[in-house]
Here is the input.
Amino acid sequence: MALRIFSTLSGKEEEFKPASDVVKMYVCGMTPKFHPHVGHARLFVSIDVLRRYLIYRGHRVHFVQNFTDVDDKIIARSNKEGIPAHEVAQKYTDSYFEVMDALGVMRADEYPKATLVIPSIIAFIEKLVAEGYAYPLDGDVYFEVSKFPEYGKLSRRSEDEGVMAGARVEVEAGKRDPRDFALWKAAKPGEPAWESPWGPGRPGWHIECSTMINETLGEQIDIHAGGRDLIFPHHENEIAQSEAFCHCSPFARYWVHIGLLSIGGEKMSHSLNNFLTIQQLLEKFEPAAVRLYLISIPYRMPMAYSQEGVEAATKGLARLRSALELRRGAEERAPRPEEVEAVDRLVESAQRAFTDGMDADFNTALGLAALYELSREINRLRSQEGYPNDVLTPARAKLVELAGVLGIDLEAQRTEEGRAADAYVDLLVEIRTKLRAAKQWALSDEIRDRLKDLGVALEDSPQGTVWKYSERG
Here is the structure.
């Protein structure tokens, strides 16, 4: 089955067909004005899964993610903290990398920054002005929307609808059309500024991405991704200025938008002051569990944050990892042919279910369902009397492989500390066996119950006691 991807531009799922043997992929990155919050994690983890799955399906991917490191909100934070704007941007860029590395988000191939491409931005704007797509106005430069007849094709907004309330749209006297948007902003006192043919100033928000894409990936790309809140005006404006610049269409073949994460019924954001930073969440939960939570529903769907959801994901992670545990005291013998065939069928079924799900527009809910079913079957087979550990090795390897495609390392917990814990459990099970032999039932039951509370399940049989990790009660 071919990989299908939903594109906001067409409004439907399409078979994924990149223009060349290298997938050109760009995502609008952070404006580093404060520590990243869980909404940012939902965005960048989701895009990381898309990228990982493209690689898994055999594509070479050139992945670029920008930083908008000059912005009104960065300047406001600079004034609040009493440090230069560039130090604010660097401080919170570093914060981004710290938490995204912890969440297993792969580093981009390139991280262009707006302030490092100012000459290219100016050249981009100069061409638009020279060709009649843009006009200067008192030190500012505006893109003339009426010169681009297809304006609105991404957001499906008509000319009559005007502009969206709350969007980053500049309304200035002298503009030829209310929809016209700033490519260059004249300098204000005390703000960062660069010299330009129109006087000192700084770039508008939208032109930065178009320029950085042109610099790193070329005039046309395969996938342009970002949060759903960027469809209008940001991505709509990118299309207009980029296609006007290159006289080509489409600027991006597939537009991918991640559903927003809300808290208390509102979009989580710095501006609303209703956010939970990623670092705060990681102080309570393991990164792999947070990542599992964030991909528990398909990327295009909106998501309402809840701590209960992260707790459920923590238990789900424990279920997946429990399938990697070997049965203590299992029979040591060569696998029977019928056992090998059954496991081979299990592996094949899991692979097919996972790929079918992820091929359907990267449906992580279906991908995870395949993992949970595989882990359940591994645990079921392992629990059978006399079942050897070795026969399940291919199934366990497949579970680790497919989880890795989603960026979840199931083997990460097997640290020295974890192996030491195994030794202590073995010791307690040995002591309990001696207590049972001495008919010290109350004490042996207490050990069993305490181990259960700690996430260790005991299974007694005539051949002895075996144990495995399970969910904590």
Q: What stands out?
A: The chain has three domains: 4-283, 307-405, 417-469. Residues 417-469 form one domain. The two ends are 41 Å apart (CA to CA).
